Amino acid sequence: MAEYFTSRGLPVPAELSRNPLVHWRRWLVILGTIAILYIGVRLADIDTSRANPEYFAGVLRQLFQPDWGVLWPQNEFETFWDGALGLMIVTIFLGIVATAIAVVIALPLSFLGARNIMAGNPLTNAIYVAIRLLFTILRSIDVLILVILALTLFGLGSASGILAIAIHTIGVIGKLYSEAIEGIDPGPAEAITATGANKLQVIWAAIVPQIVNPFISFTIYRLDTSVRLAPVIGLVGGGGIGQILFQNIQLLNYHASGTIIFLIIVTVAVMDFVSAQVRKKLV
Amino acid sequence: MAALVSVKDLVKIYATGTRALDGITLDFHRGEFIVLIGLSGSGKSTLLRCINRLVDPTSGTVIFDGTDITAAKGAELRRIRRRIGMIFQQFNLVKRSSVFTNVLAGRLGYRSTWRTFVGQPSRDDVALAFENLGRVGIIEKAFVRADALSGGQQQRVGIARALMQKPELMLADEPVASLDPATSHSVMKYLEEINKKDGITVICSLHFLSLARRYGTRVIALNGGRVAFDGLPADIDERRFKEIYGEDAVEVEIGLGRAETA
Prior knowledge:
CATH class of the largest domain in chain A: Mainly Alpha
Distance between the termini of chain A: 45 Å
Low-confidence stretches of chain A: none
Number of helices of chain B: 9
CATH topology of the largest domain in chain A: MetI-like fold
Number of domains of chain A: 2
Shape of chain A: flat
Number of domains of chain B: 2
Largest sheet of chain A: none
Structural class of chain B: alpha/beta
Order of helices and strands of chain B: EEEHEEHEHHHHEHEHEEH
Number of strands of chain A: 0
Structural class of chain A: mainly alpha
Order of helices and strands of chain A: HHHHHHHHHHHHH
Oligomer: heterodimer
C-alpha cells in the first residue's frame, strides 16, 4: 500500500510504515495468554488418574434405559403431584410465580433506574445510580447461592426456590427494562411535555406505549429462563422436580434419573420453542 | 398593544459550552405569523424551546402574556405551556399509538393525573379531537397507527394535537424540513389557516426563504445566536440574504407545487 504514496512522491502515513509483525502489543497479548493458561493448568492440578470409564459407561447405559414408572406416584401414599410428571408441572409454576413476583417489583424500579427519566437533578440521579447498582448486585449473585441463603429463612421447599429465582430475576429483568426505557425515542416525550402535561402523564402517554412490547418480550424470555432454572434449584433443596432427581442420583437409581432428565429436557425445549415463537410475533 | 411574547436579553449556553443564544431581545405580537430563518445552529430551535421552557435559558427573561415564563415552576409552568402549542420537524408522535390517541394526548395538560390513568376521556375532549382531525383533513385515519401515515399526514396529526390545547401561540420547529415541497405547502397552509381564522400567533422556523416570503408576516433571521434581520419578508434582498446566510449562499426556490390531498 505504501507504494501508492512513494510512487507519487507523497509522504507515507505513519500507520503504513509500521511493521505489524514486530509490534510489541501483539506479542504481549499472545505471550500473556499462554502464560495465564500455563499457570492455570499448574494451579488447578487436573488429576485424571482416578478416572473410571467402565463405570461411567455403565451409568450412561442406565441413563438411556428409562424407567417410566418414576413419572407416576410410587406407592398408595403418594398422589399424582409426588410423581415426576406432577413435580415437573409444579416446577413450571414455580418458575412462573417467581417471575411474576420479580416483574411486579422490577417494573416500578426500572423507571427509577432509567437515566433519561432520572437525569436533571442530583437527588434523582443518585436514585438512578443506586437502583442500577442494586440490579447489578442481585444479578451477580448466582441463583444456587441465593437458594442456600433463602433456605435459612424458609427451610427446605419451594418457598426458598421461588424467593431465590425472584431475587435473581429482579436483577436481570430490571436492567433489561431500564435499558428499554433508555432506548426510547425522546421526541414524543418532548411533545407531550410541551402540551403542559406533568411528568407522570408524559411517562404514561409518551413512554409506556413505546416500551410495552419490549417489556412483554423480556418477560417471556425471563419466564423461559426461570422455568429452566427451577429444576436446578431443587438440587439444593428449593423444591420441585430437582429434588427427586437429586434423591434418585444419590440412590444410584440411574434408570429413574435418566427419565427425569429426559422429562426436563423435553419441557425446556418446548418452553424454548414456544417463547421464541411468541417473542417473534411481538417484534 | 402589549406583546404576547416579550423576549429580553435571552442567553443560552449549553453544558457543552455552545453559545446558542447570545442576547436576543424581541417582541412577538398577537396575530403575527413570524418566520425564523437562519443557518443550522443559528439558535432557531433553542429560541423556540426557551419560549415554552423545553430548554431553560441561562439568563434573560421570556414574558408570555404578562407572566414571566423563565421564573415559572411546576403547575404554573404547565398552565402556561398549555396555552402554547408546538409542532416538530420529526412530528414526535407516539408511533405505536393510534392517530386518535395521539391527538387526545394534546389535552393532557387539562386532565388530572389520576384521570389520565383511569377512566375515559371526556365527551367534550373526544368531540374536540374529531373536530381537529376533521380540520386537518384526516378524520378517516383516526384509528390507524400513527406510523402508518405519510410524513405530511403525521405533521397534520401534530397540528391537530397542538390544537387540542386551544393555544394562543403555536411554535413550529422546522415543521416542513422532513417533507417534500408539495407536502410542505399543504402543512404550511394549515398553519396559515389557524393563524388567520383562529387568530393563533405562529412562530415558525424554516429553511427555505421562499416559504418564509410566502407565509410570513414578519421574518426574523438569526445568525450566531443574534438577531441579524427583523422586518418584512419583502425587505430581504440579495445583500441581506448574504448577511444572513454567508457570502457563498445561493437562494433555492421551493415551488408552489400541487398541494398534497391524500
